[in-house]
Structure formats: structure tokens, C-alpha cells
Amino acid sequence: MHTEPEEEEAGAATAAEEEEKAVEERAWEDAVGVSDQLRAGTEARRIHEQARQAQRDQRDQSKREEGQNFADEDKHEKLVIDIHSDKDSASMNVFPSPLPSTHPPEDLLFDSIPLSNGFLKLSVSPLSAGCRAILMLMREEGQTADVTEVDIMRGETHTSEFSLLNAKKDVPVLHLVARQADEEDYILTETSAILRFLCEFFPCCLHWYPRDLRQRAKVDEYLEWHGRHVKQSITAIIAAMTCTRDVSLLSSMSTQFMDAIATMDKHWISDASGYLCGPSPCIADLVAIAELETVELLSPDYSKFNKFSR
């Protein structure tokens, strides 16, 4: 038989449990709401860019019909390989292509890259921060590539066809198509590796990855630190919101993310330039910008970080 104090204690414990459960449910509802906003924002952006791309394609087609082209001032031509492929067939055509002379549009979405020269191919997803960083570099320098959007939400990275490109089944993937019979195609994965490769492959991109040994080492140092702190915490936050529904993990990873921002503000961002690793922007800045885009809808408070928020 329960005594009155025991019943009161049991009632208080039950009330405390119910309150704790209600707090968790409210926190989860907030997280789900932000997750839905993330998905909706991505889909709206995709639809908007598809419409813009259709307009660009129509404009380019009109110019081609009028006999115009996009060659540089001297209208140099080079021989390139264009690979057209679908699920059922693939064909290869060799044709002369003009060197690009104009910079691409200023927006930072994947399908605004100029028409490809058929030599360099990129498999990307707009949901991937690493892919966004790579495409920012390409656009900033007006370089071209065949860009294929991979729908990671529908499991397209797990198809047998994609596995031939990347056995790790993720994006981004760089595919350098062989132009000679005695050459082999070249496949490269991982964001940092691809960014470094592109800076060497396109001479105009060299300033994004400093030639000075000490400056370059600082860029490499940041990229290593970024992956273990900024990227790791953001990945865990998104997973907690969309997959595991783990409120405690969401809270701890949010704290870890803000700690990483504090470190960026104090130790990485230059007082003089406002860039991460020196007097001018580099691939480290592109990686950071692309990564932080992922948490924009969470509206993190950067106001107490002087250099970061300016």
C-alpha cells in the first residue's frame, strides 16, 4: 500500500518526465520545420535555375543560328572530344570548339557553368557543399566542364553506373576524358583534392592555391582543420535533424559548430584582409563559404564574432 508521500513523489516524477518529453517534442518540431525549409529551399532553387538555364539555352541557340560564337578575340580553335551518353548508348564525336572568352554568370548554382569543351566532366549535387565550392572556383575563372547533376536523395550515387566512377559512392567526382588512344581516363574524388588539381590544371586558377610553400601549407592546414570541425559538426546537425531525430546530439553538435566558428574568428580569419589564409581569397575561403551555406536557414547568431560577421 502506497503512502501519501510516495504517491506525491511518484506524481512529481511523472510530471517531470512529461515536461521533459514535451520539451524534446517541441525541440524536434523546430528541427523538423527547419529541415522542411531546407528541402523546400533547395527544390525552389532548383526549379528557378532550371527556368534560367532554359532561357540561357534559348539565347545561345539564337546566337548560334545567327552565326555568332563565343570564341575569344583571336577566335582560336582547339580540337576536343565531346562525349554524349545516356543509359542505353554512348557516342563520341571530334569537333573544333572555340576557346571561351567571357566569364560565366555571377550566380553560384551548378547549371550556370558555360557550355562544355567535352574534355573535363564533373559529377555534382547542389546539396553537397564540396560540389558548390568546386563550381564556385570554375565560375570565378570562367572555366568549362560537362556538369552532371547527381540526385543523391534518390540514391543515384549507388547505381552500378556511378560506382564505376567512384566506388565510394559519393560526390564530387572529376572525370578527365582521355583524348588519345594510348591515354587512360583519369578519375579524382574528394573536394580538396579536386580543388588543388583544378588550380594546377587551369593556370588562371593558380592564385587560389598559393605557390609560396608556407602560404600553401597554411591553406592545407585549414582544409584539414575544416573537415574535422566545421564540416563534421554541420554533417552531424543535418543528420540529427533529418535522420536520427536525436535532440541531444542536435544540441551538442550545435555547440560544437559555434565553437568552430569562434576558432575561425579568432585564429583563422586575417585581421587585415578578412580572408582565411592570407591577403587574398583562396580555395579555403570557397570551402568555408560553401559549407556555411548549408546552415543558412538555421540562422546561427554570428554577431559576437567580430571578424566573422563583418
Map the helices and strands.
Blueprint: H1 4-65, E1 77-85, E2 90-98, E3 120-124, H2 129-140, E4 146-149, H3 160-165, E5 173-176, E6 186-189, H4 191-201, H5 213-244, H6 247-268, H7 283-293, H8 306-309
Parallel strand pairs: 3-4
Antiparallel strand pairs: 1-2, 3-5, 5-6
Helix pairs in contact: 2-4, 2-7, 5-6, 5-7
GO molecular function, one term: glutathione transferase activity
Region (Disordered): 1-76
Biased composition (Basic and acidic residues): 42-76
Largest sheet: 4 strands, mixed
The total of helices stands at 8
Rg, alpha carbons: 24 Å
Q: Which spans of ≥5 residues are poorly predicted at pLDDT below 50?
A: 68-117
Find the structural class using helix and strand composition: alpha+beta
Mean pLDDT: 76
CATH superfamily of the domain at 95-206: Glutaredoxin
